[in-house]
Amino acid sequence: SEKEKVLENVSLDIKPGEFVAIIGESGIGKTTLIRLLMSFMSGTSGSITYYDKEGKEERSNASSRDFISYVPQGNTLFSGTIRENIRMGKLDATEEEMIEALKMAAAYDFVMELPNGIDTVIGERGHGISEGQAQRIAIARALIKKAPFLILDEATSSLDPATELKVLKGVQELTPRPTCLLITHRLSVLEYCDRQIKIDNHKVVNVEND
Question: With contact defined as beta carbons under 8 Å apart, do 30 and 205 qualify?
Fold first, then answer.
């Protein structure tokens, strides 16, 4: 039997610098959309094209991942120092760049209070720090890359509203401002987005902001 389509007749135009929220129930195609955008899988038909402010276009392929920063759901930190975890986003990052990324991710203050600061060793999946702290280090690791396209997959779900606001403001203050796709269940995130898109019954629907 033919596999059920996850997404069909999807037409989506996200402009450079736009912050777009994607909402919808679990298991309805948000992860599939990310995999398509990052060329981890290809659709049965249709195409994905990236373009910049100058109008230069590039069809989606594996090298598109060079200009995408992705913060996945859950905890993706590895065993090692916080410094090593952040450097994964940019191997030649300077101390100043790491501090800037930590500040933008609202992580600088708590990192500096740790016994060895940025050289504090954490265990696999951020063992030794809280889930919210681990999320912020993962966000700092993504921000240090300064990629023009940023995907946050439930990336602020463990943060309290005040910290979440700081992180989203930090992302918006990046220069140049990235195009940002935020996959979220939290209504609080929506007010920081230019618009929201809902995936419903295999379709992508624009939701008007009230």
Answer: no
